[in-house]
Amino acid sequence: MIKVITYGTYDLLHYGHIRLLERAKALGDYLIVGITSDDFDKSRGKINNQQSLMERIAAVRETGIADEIIVEEYEGQKIDDIKRYGVDIFTVGSDWVGKFDYLNEYCKVVYLERTQGISSSEIRAKQRTLKIFSDNKRGVEKKFVMEADFVNGIEISSDEYDAKYIVSLPKCHYNDIKNELSRCKSVICESPITCSANQTKELFELAKNNKCFLFDGLKTAYSTAFSRMLLLVKSGVIGDIVSVDATCTSMADFNESDDIGNKWNSICAWGPIALLPVFRILGTNYKQKRITTKWIDKKEKFDAFTKIDFIYDNAVASIKVAKKAKSEGELIVTGTKGYIVVPAPWWKTDYFEVRYENPQDNKRYFYQLDGEGIRYEIAAFAKSISAMKNFSNVPIDISIAISKILEDFYNGDIVEIG
Ligand code: C2G
């Protein structure tokens, strides 16, 4: 029996894929098809899959061509599979000519002519193009516009649009977001959504009632390393969590004479990001909190440095944020069996360590992160709108809890230093 193996993403299965599978099967008697996992695709830059791994597997299975379906999850797996399954022939489309010649050491390599005129990305692009408004004036917007280029079916527009990217000052967010949601335009807004828990709650209700989406723009929530770290914490690898400590600082590029009222202060610029791991790991039902702030300009409520301490039933947490102070931008999760270190800049990291008393037990994790996570956030936003299903990685209760912290900060529920 001649065993053939081929691999692919097989997103939005089309006749180009099917022709490949048919010709692959014809090369032998038994065809194994390796479907790439979502993580593996993300790590190799394919972030636009519309279908989940299970949907892609089901579609290939329904063709009845594959005798066996496996999942491709890591670089180099092909060699393992060829040995494990006793494969005689590896085949793939001619768009990969030369890329897999190294497999000749293990089996015969055959490149089959790619079917012209059809591809998953063309199908995606033909689906409704999502026009996102951005007037691309500020630095952070330039990054957003650049990152949007990596997402199929997205067009940045400065006139008519379907959805809006909002990066105005936090004090303007409520009206800016409400204005869009009221016209059934979805919004992705740089966090915080607003500086009031009730206003944020109201806006998510409005989005739901108007059948559109409100995304809390926290790019860290879309980093694979951050998501995997959360899963490890939840799975108990470091025992019960007793403390979460997050630090985010940057030296702001302005001086006191600037119009400070038109700048994002420390608590708004960094608070939402620093609060994300605290609320994702320990929840939003803290028993006590204390906000300690050092002002640059008290009248404008511009903080140079803010520390927030939380007390929960069985744990504590702290965040330190600053735009006019420097510290080590790391995230430490302390557990009863060990701890997790996400090194600086943890909010855009692709790497973390799980550490124990015996260093020999330590484990290190790496997950490719392209573009700080913004392209994955935009892809989730676009997918939500096209599928009319929410793919946001930021739970609404966390957005509301972040707004509550800001509300207390602006209401003066703080301890001042200096
Ligand atoms: N294909 C084809 N004709 C097309 C489109 C795709 O012959 N018009 C072939 C590709 O060459 C590939 C298979 O169909 O052999 C699946 O294509 P994709 O789903 O785009 O996945 P791709 O990432 O190209 O798969 O590591 C190998 C890769 O995973 C190959």
Structural notes for this entry:
This protein starts with a strand and ends with a strand. A hairpin with a 7-residue loop joins strand 17 (about 350-355) and strand 18. With about 425 residues, the chain is of the alpha/beta class. It has a nine-stranded mixed beta sheet with strand order 18-17-16-15-11-14-13-12-19, covered by helices on one side. Strands 3-2-1-4-5 form a five-stranded parallel beta sheet, sandwiched between helices. The longest helix is centred in the middle third of the chain and has 17 residues, at about 265-280. Helix content is about 35%, strand content about 25%. The protein has helices spanning about 15-25, 40-45, 55-60, 75-85, 120-125, 140-150, 170-180, 195-210, 225-235, 265-280, 375-385, 395-410; strands at about 5-10, 30-35, 70, 90-95, 110, 130-135, 155, 165, 185-190, 215, 240-250, 290-295, 300-310, 315-320, 330-335, 340, 350-355, 365, 415. It is built from twelve helices and 19 strands. Helix 8 (about 195-210) packs antiparallel against helix 12 (about 395-410). Bound molecules: [cytidine-5'-phosphate] glycerylphosphoric acid ester.
